[in-house]
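YM 10:42: U-box domain-containing protein sequence, as discussed on the call
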Amino acid sequence: MEVSNVLSEIDVACKKQDGKGCRDLVVKIKSLAKESERNKRGIVSNGACGVLSEAFQAFSMASSFDENDDILEEILSALTIMFPLDAQAKGFSGSVSAMQCLIWFLSSRDLSRRRNTVLVLKEIVSSSSSDNRRKVNELSQTEGAIEAFFKLIKDPNCPSSTKAALLIIYHIITSSSTKEKQVRKLVNLGTISLLLETSLDAERSTCEKALGVLDGICDTEEGRRMVCDNALSMPVLVKKILRVSDLTTEFSVSVLWKLCKKGEMEDDRSVVFEALQVGAFQKLLLLLQVGCGEKTKEKASEVLKTLNLHRNKMECVDPMDNFKNLKRSF
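YM 10:58: structure's back
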């Protein structure tokens, strides 16, 4: 009853555009949720996510976000406690005005505010619903969105923010109707070098997401060309096969497949020779012997056939590789 009453009061405060009153009520709800897991479940089951998201949408429609800065920030903070967001909450949070406000928050110097914002955005776009593509499209078309996510990866002050930004970018460049435009922006910002450097020593989850974004970038012609031109690409991709997780192996093989396929189609075999130089043939052959998913197996086999055609021209195996002596016909 207490929760129900507070949520009703928040709804009334929103309609009156009473920012101070609404903020005090949100603080109360947040305090109750933090007291115990039982409280949190009770608050969520009473529809708190939907009420708070609707309040965020209402206060984001002001002529200037500065006018309701405090209440908007407080609502964001409360929402992060109640993940996962339900469909109703994602609907309100994914509205045009709310999305613009969230991107505006990403430019803040406050680390906590940026973290809360990107985590809410990740919730909005990480959905299997039919409405997900529309939200991803709206986000991709919001001015400054890609640049804001890039900044979160470039300045990794918070691991959870970095991973959330990578995941959102992945959804944008694989699901949005403007993915080629977004990839062009990412390329111009210098994202390819950043992704490769990030994946070098990153922990498993971050590495997987960075390589996933790289794989998405390689779906475009411009993206493949820029990845081919980067000196780190081949060494990093080959190194990550069978090193971190099944997913990093899957993404690494997928990128290799796209790059080598491009090299053969354009009769530019420099990328193939580079792959041979860093020991891709032995690594992929070992992958097939160890075993992997069906799609990865098909791509690895195709790359091996391409590499095998040129092995007699150039091959140099990394002396640090544990399988440097693996020599078998294919």
